[in-house]
Amino acid sequence: MSRKASGLKAWFVQRVTAIYIGLFAIYLLIKLTIGAPAYFAEWKAWLGNPLVSVAALLFFVTVLLHAWIGVRDIVIDYIWNTSQRMVALSIIGLFLIACGLWAAQILILARI
Amino acid sequence: MQTTKRPVHLDIPKIELPIAAFMSILHRATGAIMFLALPVLLYLLDLSLTDPEGYQRAGEIMHNWFFVLLTFVLVWSLMHHLLAGIRYLLIDIHIGVDKPDFRQSAQAVTFVAPVVALILTGALL
Lengths: 112, 125
Prior knowledge:
The complex is a heterodimer of chains A (112) and B (125).
Chain A: H1 8-34, H2 40-48, H3 50-78, H4 82-109
Chain B: H1 19-50, H2 52-63, H3 65-92, H4 101-124
Helix pairs in contact in B: 1-2, 1-3, 1-4, 3-4
């Protein structure tokens, strides 16, 4: 199994997603400390706002991509056996996709 | 994968890490911690958005002492990972590459992160 693999695409995706995640996380922290929704209706209304909802969905997409690249690096560094590595990456990949689908459900249903 | 007979030094207590290396391994560890916390956070989000009772229940869980500890660990993880990440992005565009900046920024990240995390955890809860 030999294929020239450049890490450039992953490197770039990791940086771009990092920037969006960083900006959204800062916004989230400020919002939750200074202007936190005080009760259920406010909370649901805030996340139901289309702008916030899309930004949050995008946040989860970027987190998934960013986390995949990061954890993949960890697996590549510490799991050297080919079959163990394949199993680990498969489980982690499916897990992240499942988390994404769950987040999508939660956020989309919050708009109803 | 290669198999060599070269000696390996993994005597962890004896290894002295420079501050930048320590910050770096924490960057990886905090990333992993947040990755593992994803389902927990999603569960809380789900619960809090279901109905007012769920929102109530989510609030109770978050004020349980164990959860306060967990929240601090996660906020610290986020702060460390975020600040270290910003340091790396700046180094990518050649800011802070030379000494003493390289070392001082690593120190700053490592010590500012838990302080900010403490303040934020208090403010969030």
